């Protein structure tokens, strides 16, 4: 199998699975229990928080475990809106966010908030002038992802922080974590376990010191009252382990470059949708005159797994809202494949993928469709 869909999810590290099994088996206690089994679980959560904080390497703040990146995004956005409602009603985001942010902002819009979605250009670069103009005294929240999940474009969080005035700045760093240093100037940062060879169904929200948002869940007061609900100890311990293991990871840039130059050499009529200076974990290319979905299933026959866009979009069959926002034509969107890289990929795999892609694309172009 050649797995090139690491932006959708990653293969869990064996060491992470081992740690999780410990807390699913023998050490199964509830961190709130007073006896030693509970204290052991509480210690595991504390250790995991330390490991995650070390890996995220952010300024002074607090880290709360959640059930996923989506929950962290929702907690940040609804929390910030609720905390600052009296100060203003403007929320700024981008047209290319993950649905976890876009849909949350959409709900707030329905409740009367004034939501501005900033444009991107044909390389998925944010229109900073539009953003600057949109910021006013009424702006309570700016939510911009650090790395785009479909193109790998890196958003200028540092520059946004300089112009944000009194707004809270949230960044969805789900695709950035473990790939590039996290934005130290944000007030709220979202990460997720399953994109870093950790477990699915676990995420975290980091909140800068002196930034206050209300708790999202009402309940027993776990996570210092910020996220009630019995802690998912195995997943939390697994996320801590995955975060600690990030320090052993090398760059995937060489793999991306090798795949890109192989495709450029072998296949004509393509459009590279990822910016040159994007995060090397993602490479999005349109193979003009093909249908990405058909290419995907053709590659699948050789156990090569890629994506046509964002796998965690609810809109699996629809057109990519990111490529649309970039102003790509229907033809360009239809033929767009996302390759995304992880620690288990090799250079030899890239050569095999170039070869299989070349065959799949030329066959499609010859026959139209062959399914
Ligand atoms: N944000 C981004 C940028 C993502 O790519 C994803 C998942 O693909 C999420 C949020 C959602 O994370 P989770 O799957 O943990 O809910």
Automatic annotation (TrEMBL):
Which SUPFAM superfamilies does this UniProt record tie to the protein?
PLP-dependent transferases
Give all residue intervals belonging to the Aminotransferase class V domain: 2-353
The question of whether Iron-sulfur is a record keyword is answered with yes
Reaction catalysis annotation = (sulfur carrier)-H + L-cysteine = (sulfur carrier)-SH + L-alanine
Q: Tell me the Gene3D superfamilies matching this sequence.
A: 1.10.260.50, Aspartate Aminotransferase, domain 1, Type I PLP-dependent aspartate aminotransferase-like (Major domain)
Q: Which Pfam families match?
A: Aminotran_5
Q: Mind listing the UniProt keywords for this protein, alphabetically? A: Iron, Iron-sulfur, Metal-binding, Pyridoxal phosphate, Transferase
Q: Does the keyword Secreted apply?
A: no
Q: Which GO terms describe its molecular function?
A: cysteine desulfurase activity; iron-sulfur cluster binding; metal ion binding
Its cofactor is:
pyridoxal 5'-phosphate
* Family that this chain belongs to: Belongs to the class-V pyridoxal-phosphate-dependent aminotransferase family. NifS/IscS subfamily.
Query: Can you say what this protein is called?
Result: Cysteine desulfurase
* Organism annotation: Hominibacterium faecale
């Amino acid at each position: 199998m050649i797995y090139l869909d690491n932006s959708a999810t990653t293969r869990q590290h064996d060491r992470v699975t081992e740690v999780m099994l410990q807390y699913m088996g023998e050490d199964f206690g509830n961190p709130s229990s007073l006896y030693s089994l509970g204290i052991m679980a509480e210690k595991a959560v504390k250790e995991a928080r330390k490991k995650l904080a070390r890996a995220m390497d952010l300024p002074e703040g607090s880290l709360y475990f959640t059930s996923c990146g989506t929950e962290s995004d929702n907690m940040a956005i609804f929390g910030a809106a609720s905390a600052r409602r009296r100060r203003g009603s403007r929320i700024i985001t981008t047209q290319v966010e993950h649905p976890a942010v876009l849909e949350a902002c959409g709900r707030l819009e329905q409740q009367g908030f004034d939501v501005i979605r900033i444009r991107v250009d044909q390389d998925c670069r944010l229109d900073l002038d539009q953003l600057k103009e949109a910021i006013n005294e009424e702006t309570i929240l700016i939510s911009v992802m650090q790395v785009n999940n479909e193109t790998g474009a890196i958003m200028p969080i540092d520059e946004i922080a300089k112009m944000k005035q009194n707004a809270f700045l949230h960044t969805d760093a789900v695709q950035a974590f473990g790939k590039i240093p996290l934005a130290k100037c944000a007030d709220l940062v979202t990460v997720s376990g399953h994109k870093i060879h950790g477990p699915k169904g676990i995420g975290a929200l980091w909140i800068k010191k002196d930034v206050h948002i209300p708790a999202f869940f009402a309940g027993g007061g776990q996570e210092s009252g910020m996220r009630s609900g019995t802690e998912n100890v195995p997943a939390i311990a697994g996320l801590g382990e995955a975060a600690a293991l990030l320090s052993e990871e090398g760059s995937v840039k060489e793999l991306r470059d090798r795949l890109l130059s192989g495709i450029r050499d072998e296949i004509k009529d393509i459009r590279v949708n990822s910016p040159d200076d994007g995060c090397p974990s993602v490479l999005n290319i349109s193979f003009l005159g093909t249908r990405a979905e058909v290419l995907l299933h053709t590659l699948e026959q050789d156990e090569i797994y890629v994506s046509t866009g964002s796998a965690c979009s609810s809109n699996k069959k629809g057109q990519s809202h990111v490529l649309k926002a970039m102003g790509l034509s229907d033809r360009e969107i239809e033929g767009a494949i996302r390759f995304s890289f992880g620690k288990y990929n090799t250079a030899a795999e890239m050569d095999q993928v170039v070869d299989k892609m070349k065959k799949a694309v030329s066959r499609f172009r010859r026959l139209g469709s062959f399914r």
